[in-house]
């Protein structure tokens, strides 16, 4: 049986998140979350950069119910490398209420891709965050993208805002829908209409196949969870960035908890509070329905 020591300083997920005050619309999808192990059943990858605490499908589905969501999109995290067994196990036990985004290598066979598809995988994730993964040549990633495109899958990309200029040509040449994790990780101390975030907005404006997750305020925020004027203004420095994307591209945004919040060392969010943040970035019922139901259903449950 595999035994894993959690990376020092790692914060476990919130033991008892609050029930949100904001009631999400019927059929809402948490479109970015993970399962970790459990490590003794689904060992973590040898090439991983961190060892998480276990976070099982049972715990994920209990959180989903508590927060009032109906469905999950489970995203393969780097600590499992390209071993998608924990993800597939969660999908198969979800009663069709979860879809997945996998990590695959160029050596994957067509039969293996078909198996992932049958389990509910609808995309692959390319991670460019240097503290999380070793470098993979772009030709390899492009080859994978061309293999998954005929399945109707999409590509999820994770990168830091400073790296967007270098990655621009690759992203804008991908042959599928492209979903950006966490708004391309903007530096929220910079202006929302400054050159850095403007570049990201321009990429979405010029390329209608590019979507964004307006997620992870807890990861991006400098002002933090409890602003001076109380809980309702939690993560207020991230609001202008997410709200701008929701209002400009209402049909191409997704939202997710990011549970169990890997690699947070200072502050672990209350997931209920994260849900209460949603009406600040999507102020109308129509925007909320698109963000939480219509968009993820179109991308993940079209079949
Ligand atoms: C996230 C964020 C992070 C980690 C991963 O796959 C991963 O390990 O995505 C991070 O450390 O910023 O979305 O889960």
For this structure, the CATH topology is: TIM Barrel
Main sheet strand line-up: 1-2-3-4-5-6-7-8
Query: Which molecules are bound besides the chains?
Result: (1E,3Z)-4-hydroxybuta-1,3-diene-1,2,4-tricarboxylic acid
Overall pLDDT level: 96
Q: Report how far the terminal alpha carbons are from each other.
A: 38 Å
Q: Give start-end ranges of low-pLDDT stretches.
A: none
Structural class: alpha/beta
Quote the beta fraction: 5-15%
Element layout with pairings:
Elements: E1 29-33, H1 57-67, E2 71-75, H2 85-92, E3 98-102, H3 110-119, E4 121-127, H4 138-148, E5 154-158, H5 164-172, E6 178-180, H6 195-206, E7 210-213, H7 217-220, H8 239-248, E8 253-254, H9 271-281, H10 285-300
The structure holds (1E,3Z)-4-hydroxybuta-1,3-diene-1,2,4-tricarboxylic acid.
What does this 3D model show about the protein?
With 303 residues, this protein is of the alpha/beta class. The protein contains 10 helices and 8 strands. It has helices at residues 57-67, 85-92, 110-119, 138-148, 164-172, 195-206, 217-220, 239-248, 271-281, 285-300, and strands spanning 29-33, 71-75, 98-102, 121-127, 154-158, 178-180, 210-213, 253-254. Strands 1-2-3-4-5-6-7-8 form an 8-stranded parallel β-sheet, with helices on both faces. Strand 5 (154-158), helix 5 (164-172) and strand 6 (178-180) form a beta-alpha-beta unit. The protein is globular, with a radius of gyration of 18 Å. The mean pLDDT is 96. It binds (1E,3Z)-4-hydroxybuta-1,3-diene-1,2,4-tricarboxylic acid. (1E,3Z)-4-hydroxybuta-1,3-diene-1,2,4-tricarboxylic acid is lined by residues 34, 77-79, 127, 132, 158, 181, 219, 258, 262-263. (1E,3Z)-4-hydroxybuta-1,3-diene-1,2,4-tricarboxylic acid (0GY) binds at residues 34, 77-79, 127, 132, 158, 181, 219, 258, 262-263.
């Amino acid at each position: 049986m595999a035994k894993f020591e959690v990376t020092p300083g790692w914060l476990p997920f919130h033991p008892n998140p609050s029930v949100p005050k904001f009631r999400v619309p019927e059929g809402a999808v948490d479109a970015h979350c993970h399962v970790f192990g459990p490590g003794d059943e689904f060992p973590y990858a040898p090439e991983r950069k961190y060892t998480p605490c276990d976070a099982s499908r049972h715990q994920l589905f209990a959180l989903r119910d508590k927060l009032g969501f109906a469905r999950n999109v489970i995203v393969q995290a780097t600590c499992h490398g390209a071993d998608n067994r924990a993800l597939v196990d969660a999908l198969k036990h979800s009663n069709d209420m979860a879809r997945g985004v996998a990590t695959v290598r160029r050596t994957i066979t067509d039969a293996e891709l078909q198996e992932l598809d049958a389990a509910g995988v609808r995309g692959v994730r390319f991670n460019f965050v240097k503290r999380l993964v070793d470098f993979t040549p772009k030709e390899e990633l492009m080859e994978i993208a061309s293999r998954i495109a005929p399945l109707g899958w999409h590509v999820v990309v994770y990168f830091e805002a400073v790296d967007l200029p270098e990655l621009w040509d690759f992203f804008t040449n991908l042959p599928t829908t492209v979903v950006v994790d966490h708004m391309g990780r903007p530096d929220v101390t910079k202006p929302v209409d400054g050159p850095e975030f403007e570049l990201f907005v321009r990429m979405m404006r010029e390329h209608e196949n590019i979507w964004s997750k307006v997620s992870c305020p807890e990861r991006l925020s400098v002002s933090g969870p409890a602003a001076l004027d109380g809980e309702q203004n939690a993560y207020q420095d991230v609001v202008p960035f997410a709200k701008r994307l929701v209002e400009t591209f209402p049909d191409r945004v997704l939202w997710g908890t990011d549970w169990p919040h890997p690699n947070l060392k200072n502050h672990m969010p209350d997931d209920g509070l994260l849900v209460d943040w949603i009406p600040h970035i999507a102020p109308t019922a129509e925007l909320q329905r698109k963000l939480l139901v219509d968009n993820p259903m179109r991308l993940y449950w079209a079949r």
